[in-house]
Design a protein that fits this description.
It is a single chain. This protein is of the alpha+beta class. The protein has one domain. The protein contains 2 helices and 2 strands; from the N terminus they run ββαα. A hairpin with a 6-residue loop joins strand 1 and strand 2. The longest helix has 27 residues.
Length: about 100
């Protein structure tokens, strides 16, 4: 399936290295040009999400000994925030219908 979708990513509370105040950041990941019905297409989407997370989180300071760990956590948080939308889009692309449960009682 090559219908383009957009996955909004939001990181609502990261600390800006300059101000130490929480900032709000957003990014959008496009699925344009990806065939999400294939493993390669899904991997490419995951890579786009990782790149967006890296762009949102920025880089760590060499002067901050906990900077790399914070950066890793930031990227993990962004990827987790995008996970539901990513999974839903991949299921749609694979043609998976939602599972409906009904009782005959």
């Amino acid at each position: 399936m090559k219908t383009p979708f957009l996955i909004p990513l939001a990181l609502l509370s990261i600390a800006s290295p300059l101000s130490a105040q929480p900032v709000s950041a957003r990014a959008t990941v496009s699925t344009a040009g990806l065939d999400l019905g294939t493993v390669a297409g899904v991997r490419a989407l995951d890579l786009r999400i990782l790149h967006a997370a890296s762009a949102l989180c920025g880089t760590s300071s060499a002067a901050d000994p906990r900077g790399p760990a914070r950066l890793d956590q930031c990227r993990a948080d962004v990827r987790a925030a995008a996970a539901a939308a990513r999974d839903r889009i991949v299921r749609l692309a694979a043609g998976a219908a939602p599972v409906l449960v009904a009782s005959g009682r």
